[in-house]
Fold:
Amino acid sequence: QYVDAHKLQEAWPVSAGINELFSVRTVESTRRESGLYECETLLYVDRQSRRLIVAGEVSLSGEVASSDAENAELWQSPEELRSGLRIDVMNQVLVDMRASQSNWSVATGFKAVFKSASARVSEGNAQTLQELQTCWDKPPICTLI
Structure:
């Protein structure tokens, strides 16, 4: 998505020495928005602390919003999973999620805190997959992809 560089000044950190912003497409389920919220999250690296910081976001309509500087965590899946990543499947999952959007609720937030997210491997891979797929139609937990 193209954004006029002058608009990015609204989210540009005032700290001296920040001369690069990174834009990362993110999708999240949050109670502040109905269904899935998609945007380009703006990040920068604080060279002193070596931390990744959220500077703001650009909405899908191109609106730029700054945010308080908050630390971002970058997680990377193991190489064995990354090497088999199929972008076509990932995109289809997002299409399916958009088609069956549900809203975040306080109840799902409590489930995220108090309920285990582990999956039992029972009779075999097929049954485990079937159990996981039944969860896909349940209301979302607040999360960021």
In short: Helices lie at 5-8, 79-82, 87-99, 106-114, 125-135. The mean pLDDT is 76.
